Amino acid sequence: MNLAISTPKRKMNRKTIGRWLRAATHIGSLLPLAWLVWQFFQNDLGTDPVREIILRTGKLTIIWLMLSLAVTPLNKLFGWKQIIPLRKPLGLYAFLYVSLHLLTFVWLDYGLNLTFILDGIFEQPYVLIGFAAYLLLIPLAATSNKWAMRRLGKNWKRLHKLVYLIGALGIIHFFWLVKVYDRPILYGSVMGLLLLTRIKPISRWLVIWRGYLRRWSASLRTSR
Questions:
Q1: Structure confidence at residue 5 (pLDDT)
Q2: Could you tell me the end-to-end alpha-carbon distance of the chain, in angstroms, rounded to an integer?
Q3: Is residue 25 part of a domain?
Q4: What confidence tens digit (pLDDT) does each residue in 81-115 have?
Q5: Alpha carbon distance 119, 115 (integer Å)
Q6: Could you give the CA distance from residue 149 to residue 79 in angstroms, rounded to a whole number?
């Protein structure tokens, strides 16, 4: 009788946790944008607000992209299935921030002057790499829905593997853009670790470790 009751309760708890996680993801993803907009209208972005917006939206793009990429290895390692639905919104928020990053560049920095924009893209290597990463990200964002998954079939996964190339291009773009390299090196290291988890032997190792962690956790509970 207790088992019959506990199973629906467990399912309800998982659904509740899932709803809270999705809400936290949306709120947490929009808070940096709200803070940036507030600082902009309060004239609190330093002596060069346009550069500050470019840098901050660029950092947020990389962070949210890495959070999206971290979902699968975290699930494999800890069995956190509730976080799997968060991969899509995290990726789309990364696309939102990179779009704002590009919009700031072409509008606030270059005044929508096509000649200046093209010169900036082709004369500065870091801008060209960043623009290439953005172009590659567009089809991923456009196909982040169930209809596209059904239409593309196996090709959907092949297409979305581009995210690792995009992440690498984003790190290179960031590395060339800033003068201090500690943050790009940190981001690059994390991106490299996430890329390693896609290698089949390491992916299988994560699943094996999850089994070890479960047995260790169960032995701790029984020893109490």
A1: 42
A2: 25
A3: no
A4: 888 899 999 999 999 999 999 999 889 877 888 88
A5: 6
A6: 24
Please state, for a pLDDT cut of 90, what percent of the chain lies above it. Answer: 33
Alpha-carbon distance of 170 to 157, in angstroms, equals 21
- CA dist 196 and 202 (Å) reads 7
The answer to whether residue 38 is domain-embedded is no
Element (H, E) at 202: helix 200-223
For Cα atoms 76, 142, 74, give the angle at the middle one, nearest 5 degrees.
10
The domain of 190 spans 46-223
Which of 34, 38, 32, 24 lies closest to 56 in space, CA to CA? Answer: 32
The dihedral through the CA atoms of 89, 95, 98, 102 has a sign that is: negative
Structure-block tokens of residue 111: 């005044």
> Is 7 a member of any domain?
no
Residue 22 located in a structural domain: no
> What token pair was written down for 163?
């995210």
Q: What is the CB neighbour count within 10 angstroms for residue 66? A: 19
Total domains in the chain come to: 1
What per-residue string of b and e applies to 161-196 under the rule 16 or more CB within 10 Å gives b? eebbebbbbbbbbbbebeeeeeebeebbebbeebbe
